[in-house]
Amino acid sequence: MDIDVTCPMCNLLPETSLHLFVDCTFAQDCWRKTFGAGYASVEGTFACWFDKAVNNGQSDNKEDVVMLC
Length: 69
Ligand SMILES: [Zn+2]
Description:
This protein is mainly alpha-helical. It has four helices and no strands. It comes from Cannabis sativa.
């Protein structure tokens, strides 16, 4: 049984957790509407991005990033 793993929001790339929460144009629109700016992606996994966003991000956004994810 084949399962379509293409992101249903953009229909462009595989729906990985990093794509869903960071890379997708829909996700970037959500970040911009929430914080006024998008978040840059990282090499690796969503866990790598989350760690960087929480531990190296602006202190004002830490709780919001945790809450939104
Ligand atoms: Zn997408």
